[in-house]
Inverse folding.
C-alpha cells in the first residue's frame, strides 16, 4: 500500500535540492520555502537522501524513515544546513461535518524561541509552540484573521502576519520559517492541506 507525501524545503541556509527515496528521484530542484505536489510513495522502510540540486556527490541528508500505509504526509526538511533533519507531519485524511475552517501552526524557524500565536488583541490561539512542534488543528469560523507571532508568555511581537482568509471546510497550516535577526528573515507561509 502507498501513501501520499509532499516535500517541504524549510532550511533557510540551504540551496535548492533534489530529494531521493530509496535512490529514486522524487522531487528535483526544490528551493527554500517551496512545497512539492503530492506524490505516491510505497509504505515501509524508506531511505531519504537530499543532495544539492543537480549533484549526487555527498548528500546533505541521508536518513531512514518508515512510511506508514494509507497516510497523507508532509515531509519537511528542517533546521540549518549543518543540523538538517526531517520532520514528518501528518495531514488530515478525513473531513469533518462542520461548515468551518481548520487551522494549525508549525514552528520551523531553527533559531526562534518558543512562541504564541495570537490575535491582534493578544488573545492566544496557540500557546508555547517550540521549534519542530506542530499543533493540533483548531476549528474556527471562516473569515479573515489578523494574527501575530509573539515570544511565548510575553507581549513581544516578532512577526505580524498579513491578513489570512480562511475558507469553510478547508484545513490550513501556518508554517513559521526563516531566521530571527538574520537572513532570510522570519516569515509565515500558509499551506492548504485539504479542501473538503
Amino acid at each position: 500500500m502507498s501513501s501520499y507525501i509532499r516535500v517541504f524545503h524549510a532550511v533557510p541556509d540551504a540551496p535548492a535540492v533534489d530529494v531521493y527515496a530509496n535512490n529514486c528521484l522524487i522531487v528535483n530542484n526544490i528551493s527554500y520555502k517551496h512545497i512539492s505536489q503530492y506524490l505516491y510513495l510505497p509504505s515501509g522502510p524508506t531511505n531519504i537522501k537530499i543532495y544539492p540540486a543537480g549533484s549526487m556527490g555527498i548528500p546533505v541528508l541521508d536518513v531512514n524513515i518508515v512510511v506508514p500505509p494509507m497516510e497523507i504526509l508532509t515531509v519537511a526538511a528542517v533546521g540549518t544546513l549543518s543540523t538538517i533533519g526531517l520532520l514528518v507531519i501528518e495531514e488530515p485524511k478525513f473531513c469533518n461535518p462542520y461548515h468551518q475552517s481548520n487551522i494549525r501552526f508549525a514552528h520551523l524557524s531553527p533559531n526562534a524561541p518558543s512562541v504564541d500565536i495570537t490575535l491582534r488583541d493578544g488573545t492566544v490561539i496557540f500557546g508555547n509552540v517550540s521549534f519542530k512542534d506542530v499543533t493540533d488543528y483548531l476549528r474556527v469560523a471562516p473569515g479573515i484573521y489578523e494574527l501575530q507571532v509573539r515570544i511565548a508568555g510575553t507581549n513581544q511581537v516578532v512577526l505580524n502576519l498579513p491578513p489570512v482568509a480562511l475558507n469553510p471546510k478547508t484545513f490550513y497550516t501556518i508554517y513559521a520559517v526563516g531566521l530571527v535577526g538574520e537572513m532570510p528573515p522570519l516569515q509565515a507561509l500558509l499551506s492548504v492541506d485539504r479542501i473538503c
The chain has a mean pLDDT of 95. The first strand starts at residue 2 and ends at 9. The radius of gyration is 17 Å. The CA atoms of residues 48 and 94 lie 27 Å apart.
